[in-house]
Design brief:
Blueprint: H1 2-27, H2 29-38, H3 44-74, H4 77-94, H5 103-125, H6 128-131, H7 137-164, H8 171-189, H9 203-216, H10 222-251, H11 257-285, H12 287-307, H13 314-323, H14 327-360, H15 366-395, H16 398-401, H17 404-416
């Protein structure tokens, strides 16, 4: 048991490491820097950013199931994770060399960094069933996300002095170093089950053949297929929030950099609590019920954010009369509430999804099915950001763009209601 606790800690420490990339590059610092400096504050910056995200996700979505099948066959999860981790770390450090007008270079380097980060998660997530028992999937997955948000708080703490001194570019190699240092224990301590070497065989051919076989027989995993379809839609909304939260607060609500830092501190702190709380709750009442609760909260968050993002909105006028504060102050404080609520379910939704996926996945196809899990998650992140970027660009308003997210959460909820939340469904269901 002591050894398992240590494995869980080291596994969660990798989440602590890689979330530094997520907060510094994807969600906050580089996302804002890309819009304001690289794209020189032009509205088309949202469209460029959505293209960069979508291209990286398309590539990751395509390669993830193939890589997962190869890793299952060769028991090489850790080797693949190491390769993609280093790819992300090196590319993140290279973002230091971006500047005003260097859109193409910035997009290419970001795409490579994001592929490394996202593809690595396929193999990292697949280790969950190997370090704990099914009855603890929810809480252990929640611990991982909680550690991740602790890591993002630490990364923001390190970046803060540089941001306040207008040394934004320096935060990118710092994030890369943070990622490297805290990811190393995973590769030294967590072991990967090895299989006997097979001579004269193409792992690529094996990957394609196994994925082809799984796709043809996915109808035999009806419950898992239904969950993946639901996951495709609701994670669309979550991913888009992550990709555009910083830009939205900066562009639409005119947050200063200091206010943005406070906002993300609120988000990350509430995410730690939410990940642990929902993780424990999902083990108690079931992953499906916990997911449903989190998705209803997301819908409420989007509606509240829309209503409080326009100083002339009737809802802001109502709050103005109720609290006797300026409209700008009410918008600022309302978005802090949005951040508090979003943080509480941001990690929780992803964490519960990962634990439910672990419960529904066949033991001998873990990484392959997590490849499909990644495929659905990454391919979903193509449509959401593009929809947000397109609506923002055509209307000139990010406020209307966020309403598109409600559609994804509602469809996800509708499909999720038919998913059977039981561990026995890891075996194929044949008529």
């Amino acid at each position: 048991m002591k050894d398992n606790k240590k494995k869980i800690f080291v596994w969660a420490l990798f989440d602590f490491a890689n979330t530094s990339y997520s907060i510094v590059v994807v969600t906050f610092v580089f996302a804002v820097y890309f819009k304001e400096v690289i794209s020189e504050g032009q509205p088309v910056g949202d469209l460029y950013w959505s293209f960069a995200i979508s291209i990286s996700m398309i590539i990751t979505a395509i390669i993830s199931p193939i890589l997962g099948a190869i890793a299952d066959y060769s028991a090489g999860k850790k080797r693949f994770l190491l390769f993609f981790t280093l790819l992300s770390i090196i590319s993140t450090a290279l973002l230091y060399f971006t500047d005003a007008g260097s859109v193409l270079f910035a997009v290419v380097v970001f795409i490579i960094a994001n592929i490394g980060f996202e593809a690595g998660l396929v193999f990292y997530d697949a280790f969950l069933p190997e370090i704990t028992q099914p009855k603890n999937y929810g809480r252990v997955s929640g611990y991982g996300f909680a550690f991740g948000y602790l890591g993002s708080l630490a990364a923001l703490g390190i970046a803060f002095p540089f941001i306040t001194r207008n040394m934004v570019k320096e935060t990118f190699p710092l994030s890369a170093l943070f990622f490297l240092v805290f990811a190393l224990p995973f590769f030294f301590y967590i072991s990967d089950t090895r299989k006997p070497a097979v001579k004269k065989i193409s792992f690529v051919k094996v990957g394609f053949s196994r994925v082809s076989y799984t796709i043809k027989n996915l109808k035999n995993y009806k419950n898992l297929a239904l969950f993946l379809a639901s996951f495709f839609f609701f994670i669309e909304g979550v991913n888009t929030v992550i990709f555009f939260a910083g830009n939205y607060a900066r562009t639409t609500l005119h947050f200063s950099m200091n206010e943005l830092i406070v906002f993300f501190l609120v988000v990350q702190t509430s995410a730690i609590i939410g990940s642990i709380f929902f993780g424990i709750m999902s083990d108690s009442i079931g992953q499906k019920k916990s997911l449903v609760i989190s998705l209803f909260i997301w819908i409420g968050i989007i509606i509240f954010a829309f209503l409080t993002s326009d100083p002339e909105n009737a809802f802001i006028s109502f709050l103005n009369g109720l609290f006797n504060q300026t409209r700008e102050e009410l918008m600022l404080r309302s978005f802090y509430v949005v951040g508090l609520l979003a943080g509480s379910v941001m990690g929780a939704t992803q964490s519960i999804s990962r634990s439910l996926m672990s419960k529904l996945t066949p033991d001998d196809k873990r990484t392959e099915f997590f490849g499909f899990y990644s495929f659905f998650g990454k391919s979903s992140a193509i449509i959401g950001p593009l929809a947000f970027g397109f609506v923002s660009y055509t209307t000139g308003s990010q406020r209307y763009a966020i309403l598109t997210l409600i559609i994804f959460f509602v469809i996800g909820l509708f499909l999720l209601k038919n998913v059977d939340d039981h561990s026995g469904d890891a075996k194929p269901q044949v008529n």
